[in-house]
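Hi everyone, sorry if this is the wrong subforum. Our group has a chain we'd like a structural model of before ordering constructs, and none of us has done structure prediction before. Sequence below.
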Amino acid sequence: MTGIHIDEFYADAARILVSLYGVFPRRVNLFVEDFCGSDEPDEYGIHSTRYQACFATMVWLGEEGYIRYQDTIRQDALDQAVLSGRCFSALISPSSQTRSDQASQSPTSETLPPSVQAEHASIVHQLEQALQQRASVAIREAFIRLLFKMSGSPDAG
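Answer:
Right subforum, don't worry. Here is the predicted structure as tokens:
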């Protein structure tokens, strides 16, 4: 069992990466409030723990090579963010999720053209579907597949 902060990390990271995938290869500004909601700093100028965690996720994605960005804008955004080539490749690669797992998620998948089947087997598609369904277990599993792809380790999924 994971802590709620880890599930929030998976969800934030997935939303950030899917968002950047949707505009790839353009560089965009990523605002924390777009991923975890607006937040007013307290009287000392400090944001909520949730807001800080989302910003930290953005920075971590950069430090670990998932994304590139030019600079931070206070603790509110990343300036000129884009997926790294390695992350883009990992996102579009097929997941090692079994065909029976994929078929159970989409009963008509066998009737789809091969190009659509390949897209549905990609990690980015699995992240998109899990986010759309708000399924924290599916988000975690798809993100862990991405972690393994990015690390070059055999997928544990």
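For your construct planning: The first helix runs from residue 4 to 23. Residues 98-104 have pLDDT under 50 and may be disordered.
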